[in-house]
Amino acid sequence: MRIKDQFKEGLITNNPVLVQQIGMCATMAITTSLFNGIGMGLSVLIILTCCNVVISAIRKIIPGEIRLAIFVVVIAGFVTIVDLLLQAFVPALSESLGVFIPLIVVNCIIIGRAEAFCQKNTVKASFIDGIAQGLGYTCVLVAMCFFRELLGAGRFGGGLIDVANGFRFTLDGSGGGIRIFNEDYGAKILTMPFGGFLTLGFLIAAMQYALKKSAKKKQLEEENRKEETEE
DSSP per residue over 152-216, as a string? Predict the structure, then answer.
């Protein structure tokens, strides 16, 4: 598979959240601020890529009967590394994400790619797959943060962008974000758990509509080509 096709799959046609519909629990829970969304997305991207490479490298010596147990051990190792690094260098993010970082161990995205892709493909292909799927996951998190923050709290970039002290990025979670309109006019429900379900449902519906429309367009083009060939 070409690199271009792998990125297209990860970002669009086989997006882990909007198409495969896995890893949605954390997606709905932590997307209340851009700080959380980017932090979680990058953490998953790093862990997924590292796990993909290791699992692909040892795929030929893994006994089939215990492969899932080995996958979990590998994933748990990298999750622990990332968790400790966050606690040491970005404690505000570690505290904000809380239990959702350790829960990456059982995230279906990572286990799913290990089972469906890594144990059948080369290290290079698995490395690209990890980046592509991780970017697809991160993009969904950022999109959800954008809608939930903007429409629910009237701002964007909460925790990450500090406008009060000059436009700058901060890693201590203190950034107030970019204020678009008064918070009192926001749809508060979007910042609540139900808002996660609502926003994710909207994004899934939009993606499915776009994919079906694209498929119909391709089918119509193929039919037109056949008709031209027959003529």
Answer: HHSEESTBTEE-TTSSEE-SSS-B--EE-S-GGGS-GGGGSHHHHHHHHHHHHHHHHHHHHHHHH
